[in-house]
Amino acid sequence: MAKRDYYEVLGVSKQASADELKKAFRKMARQYHPDANPDKKDAEEKFKEIAEAYEVLNDPEKRANYDRFGHAANNGQGFGGFEGGFGGFGDGLGDIFDMFFGGGGRGRRGPEKGSDLRLDMEISFEEAAFGLEKDIKVPRNEECGTCGGAGAAPGTKAQACPACNGSGQIQYAQNTPFGRVVQSRTCDRCRGAGKIIEKPCPTCHGAGQVRKTRSIHVKIPAGVDSGTRLRVSGEGESGLRGGPRGDLYVYIYVKAHKFFRREGNNVIVEISVSFSQAALGDEIEVDTLDGKARVKVPEGTQSGSVFRLRGRGILDLHGHGRGDQHVRVKVVTPTRLTEKQKELLQEFAKLGNENPAPGEKGFFEKVKGAFMG
Q: What confidence tens digit (pLDDT) does each residue in 249-305 have?
């Protein structure tokens, strides 16, 4: 079977630059690498073809010969001795094998951001409605003040790891179906740091960090509810090797109120009124988040009626105004009546033509049915 044109294999033009060749090779190598295509039998052959094309076109001298003579420049057998190994591929293939064979990088580990922290905070119903500011205690890792985070005792310093010569990586060769490949792994002795501390800091014992409890001022905005998560930037664990701090996440939990209940930004409260108040009407005093307020109960109010107090609810978390307070009325039917009360209600029933026909409910039964469900 005739070999395909190398430019066609990589999907580039004959004027492609070295960077364009490298990008094309990386893209196609990811696509056809056998480890990424265990169920495709032709993946290995395609990968070999891609690698061979890149080996030739990435070498100026081989590329010039190929441009003049095509595959005949090497009697149709390829240009790089590909079957014997990958030795001349440069850093393009090295990056690909780092990806597919677990290479740990080409140098010591750099700065790392510190871990994020979580703190659960319980607040009252009123604090959730109006917000608050408070200082909280947070235990976290901080840079050691004795060694400045270096981990070495004062007056000493870390030395380059003799096992990896300070690179943080150990290289080793491995035979693969594609030839002999040099791979890297994290150095076991220095754990990728590239340095060995012979005399650890007496305070942090070489860790470079110590455990401390810090007081952090946090602002809880008005309108939060249970489950709200607040991010306090840069107040998490200390970073490693000069890396930035992590963040602190505060999770809010709102304690239940003894008589207020929340629905969105509205506050729901239930009040009890007597039968006579509901029938004759009245003005009653109710509790709100802002103190006491007067609510008019109209004559003939039924149990379950709801009255609204505008703007007496909870502030919107995103600044879109304030909710209302809904006052739900519960009419309480008396369970024990004196003889006098019974006489008066019987007289009331007569005046209102409430005498029942045979088989119908009487006045008291109707009252109980209306106000007790």
A: 999 999 999 999 999 999 999 999 988 888 899 999 999 999 999 999 999 999 999
> Bridge-partner residues for 219, per DSSP?
133
138's CB contacts (< 8 A; 6+ apart) are 117, 119, 213, 214, 215, 216, 235, 248
Distance of alpha carbon 215 from alpha carbon 140, whole angstroms: 11
Whole-number Å distance between alpha carbons of 63 and 75 = 15
Cα–Cα distance for residue pair 323/290, rounded to 1 Å: 13
- With cut-offs at 50, 70 and 90, classify the pLDDT of residue 352: low
**pTM score over 0.70:** no
Enumerate the H helices of the chain as residue ranges: 6-10, 18-32, 43-57, 60-69, 91-100, 125-130, 275-280, 339-351, 363-372
- Of the candidates 102, 91, 99, the one whose C-alpha atom is nearest the C-alpha of residue 30 is 99
Which pLDDT tens digit goes with each residue over 87-143? 344 444 444 444 444 444 444 456 788 899 999 999 999 999 999 999 999 999 888
Longest distance between any two alpha carbons in the chain, whole Å: 124
Phi, psi of 60 (to 5 degrees): -55, -45
The CA distance from 173 to 181, in Å, is 6
**To 10 degrees, what angle do helices 18-32 and 43-57 make?**
170
Distance between CA 123 and CA 100 in Å, rounded?
A: 50
Contact between 198 and 218 under an 8 Å Cβ cutoff? The reply is no
